[in-house]
Amino acid sequence: MRITEHPILKFEKGPLVEFEHDGRKLKGHEGESIAAALHAAGVRVLRHSIKLDRPRGFFCAIGRCSSCLMTVDGVPNVMTCVTALSAGMRIETQTGKGIIPDVHFPTPPTDPDYPRDLGNVPLAIVGAGPAGLSAAIAAGQLGVRSVVIDENPVPGGQLIKQTHMFFGSKEHHARVRGIDIGAILVKEIEDLPVDCLTGTTVLGLYPGRMLALLRNGRLHRLTADSVILATGASENMLAFPNSDLPGVYGAGAVQTLMNVDGVAPGKRVLMIGAGNIGLIVSYQLLQAGVEVAAVVEGLPEFGGYHVHAAKIRRAGVPIMTSHTVLRALGTDRVEGAVISKIDGDWRPIEGTEVELDVDTICLAVGLTPNCELASQFGCDEAYVAELGGRVAIHDASLETTVPGVHIAGDASGIEEASTAMLEGRLAGLSAAAKFLHDREMGELTRLRSEAEEGLRALRAGPFGKHARAGKRKMLALASARGGDS
Amino acid sequence: MSHRQDGILERRQLLPLVPSTERSACGPVAIIECVENIPCDPCVEACPKGAIRIEGDMNGTPSVDFDTCDGCGLCVSACPGLAIFVVDMSLDAGAATVSLPYEYTPLPSVGDTVVTLSREGKVLGEGTVKRVLQALALDRTPIVTLSVPADHAMDVRHFLAKDVTA
Ligand SMILES: Cc1cc2nc3c(=O)[nH]c(=O)nc-3n(C[C@H](O)[C@H](O)[C@H](O)COP(=O)(O)OP(=O)(O)OC[C@H]3O[C@@H](n4cnc5c(N)ncnc54)[C@H](O)[C@@H]3O)c2cc1C
Ligand code: SF4
Ligand code: SF4
User: Fold this and answer.
1) Is A461–B39 a contact, with Cβ atoms under 8 angstroms apart?
2) Residue A7 located in a structural domain
3) Is the distance from CB of A28 to CB of A19 less than 8 angstroms?
4) Nearest partner of A128 among A158, A165, A156, A95, judged by Cα
5) What is the pLDDT of residues B37-79, one digit of tens each?
6) In this structure, are A409 and A427 located in the same domain?
């Protein structure tokens, strides 16, 4: 199930090494995720659930959902979708909670480059996606030093798996592929006063703007005069009978598996959701040589761009609006799916059920902003449906209700990479303001209005309707809070 | 059914995108099947002749000045929507060519016979590969030119490599 030929990507793999899975010898590439190596070897069941002993595979593939926990070298609850494979690993299907072995875990060696206390930086940015990197670039160009922290081994956020050309205008890198936009941003920070700490998770944010970091199994602390939260979003799940079967994957997980690891998620996929993500991932599946049985969408019209729909339609993929998935079939893994037409109240219409022969069901049913850090730090939040869920309340300069803490990108409301880059810029500029001289303020104002104008233009069309409404509500909430204090 | 239900443009939406029979008979021309107000404009930038225009800001829809366009095809691989095709109806009786963006492997070779597909993915007939463009400037969006019967030229939008075993 490894993808050998791809029109856009070349997969650079580590050496082939041997490992053990439930006593069986298997081979995988060193450095790829354990879950990807197992998937390539045909293993989909990674653990059994705690109460009902149901088989589980991975779901998010970005270390968020805990569906992929396995016992590795005797240690239970290892997140295999983000843990790199190495030679000789002993990997076991985990049942229940797992048993913590009665041994002394080796203490990770101290790294002289990363002492426990990393000191103070003017600006700390959480998340190295398009928003976080753009924030670092904007602040860096004004001479403000920053540290960008991301839990992934490489910077770029969602961009590292987006093989398609992006929309927008020249200044938003239109017609450049997402993967290459990521590379452009990473190149730009090289010449600026920006440090990029990859493989590092921000666990919490504490008084005095102290960030607790986890890196290579060790805790570190870092304080910052300003903080930007550019933590992106998580994928939504959809509940239906058997939706926990291995083979029901999030669209982002499918993208990670096929475009980062070069492993096909299956042979024939049912896509749920015809927003841009569902349409684009369907196209990318076709490019990877995977069949797409259909794209089903509950709404009477699909939400994505027609041009994205047209690409898969001409390749013969049906788009079925006013349809939903009723259940997944199979015992240990997805072996089929039943879909049906629905009425205006989302009730299945009897007699319209169709059984599809698929081995994978891909969910592209929306994203929810990651707001845990903002929440934990006491930023006021509000539920704004148009922005995708609970979001830290922020004003026009993207500052939250906690002074010195800004938010940008999908974390401030689900949009696009193009808007994430501009929001990142705006947050970077706003956070940089307090470090600048009075004489630099004119330039700062000019740069800020440029970014604001860009955002306005990107959100101006009919597809920007939700973002416009959401951001309007947000501004009203922020000014109401401002009035209180 | 609207194009927002099944993903297929209706006849009435296609008509304004297509040049007159007289213009078509003069040589290759770009046909842009992009009808929604999306924030996008690289096609405008890509055309060296200035033949593509978007009214207002980038959320407008593109239109081609068919008298200025010479069918050079530079806009085809610049379009992230893969929505631009170049059609040449000026050839000998009954024949035409369609150039389309093709981001799949394997790429066909010149001379191959392929199965032509419509906007709905329905089989239309057969075509012959006339040219495969794959320059660095196309950034992994090769352009494949197919020779097809003239009455298929406005419908062929994709193709399948012909399965020799079938
Ligand atoms: C299939 C698909 C297709 C898309 N196509 C397009 C398109 O064509 N055009 C377009 O403009 N947009 C597109 N997008 C949307 C775009 O990818 C996102 O809007 C954009 O990536 C958001 O950027 P961001 O920087 O806010 O978040 P992200 O890119 O998600 O980056 C956030 C980063 O923060 C890290 N992080 C989060 N929490 C922590 C923590 N506690 N500690 C350390 N690190 C943390 C994450 O690991 C991640 O790397 C697409 C999205 C998908 C899924
Ligand atoms: S085919 Fe050439 S001349 Fe015609 S619109 Fe495209 S780029 Fe311009
Ligand atoms: S580049 Fe393509 S998708 Fe973008 S506006 Fe032009 S024709 Fe439409």
Assistant:
1) yes
2) no
3) yes
4) A156
5) 999 999 999 999 999 999 988 999 999 999 999 999 999 999 9
6) yes
Residues 6+ apart with CB under 8 A from B22: none
Best mutation target, A162, A280, A301, A307, to test chain B (most B CBs within 10 A): A307
Residues A79 and A44 occupy one common structural domain: yes
CB contact at 8 A, B117 and B104: no
Q: Is residue A242 part of a domain?
A: no
pLDDT band at A107 (very low <50, low <70, confident <90, very high): confident
> What pLDDT is stored for residue B163 in this prediction?
62
**Among all residues of chain B, which has the CA nearest to that of A304?**
B4
Residues A294 and A313: their CA atoms lie apart, in Å, by 10
Measured between alpha carbons, how far is A269 from A321 in angstroms, rounded to an integer? 17
Of A8, A311, A316, the CB nearest to B140: A8
Helices (H), A155-220: 178-190
Q: What is the pTM of this model?
A: 0.95
Does the beta carbon of A409 lie inside 6 Å of ligand 1?
yes
Decide which of A65, A95, A125 is a domain's last residue: A95
Instruction: Answer yes or no: do A173 and A214 share one domain.
Output: yes
User: What is the CATH classification number for the domain harbouring A51?
Assistant: 3.10.20.440
The phi, psi pair for A308, rounded to 5°, reads -70, -40
Beta carbons within 10 angstroms of residue A202's beta carbon:
23
- Strand pairing class (A55-56; A146-149): unpaired
Quick one: tokens of A386? 């148009």
Strands A16-21 and A24-29 come out as antiparallel
Cβ atoms < 10 Å from Cβ of B48: 9
CATH number of residue A303's parent domain: 3.50.50.60
In a domain, A273, yes or no: yes
Q: Let me know whether A326 and A293 are in one domain.
A: yes
Q: Report the alpha-carbon distance of residue B30 to residue B23 in Å, rounded.
A: 11
Provide the residue range defining the domain that includes A82.
16-95
Q: Is A166 on the interface with B (CB under 8 A)?
A: yes
Domain count, chain A: 3
Cα–Cα distance between A302 and A317 in angstroms, integer? 14
Tell me the sheet residues that pair with A21.
Answer: A24, A91
pLDDT tens track for A68-78: 999 999 999 99
* Sequence-distant (≥ 6) Cβ neighbours of residue A8 within 8 angstroms: A163, A177, A179, A287, B103, B140
Q: Which chain B residues are within 8 Å of A313, Cβ to Cβ? A: 6-8, 119-121
List beta partners, residue A362.
Answer: A249, A271
**How crowded is residue A326: how many other Cβ atoms within 10 Å of its Cβ?**
17
Confidence class for position A483, pLDDT limits 50, 70, 90: low
Q: Which atom of ligand 1 is nearest to the CA of A255?
A: 1
**Has residue A439 been placed in a domain?**
yes
β-bridge mates for residue A297, sequence order: A321
Kindly state the helix (H) or strand (E) to which residue A286 belongs, with its residue range: helix A276-287
Contact A314 B117 (CB under 8 A): yes
Strand extents, DSSP E, B13-157 = 29-32, 52-54, 62-64, 84-88, 95-101, 113-117, 123-133, 143-149
Question: Can you tell me the ipTM of this complex?
Answer: 0.96
Q: At what angle do helices A306-313 and A276-287 cross, to 10 degrees?
A: 30
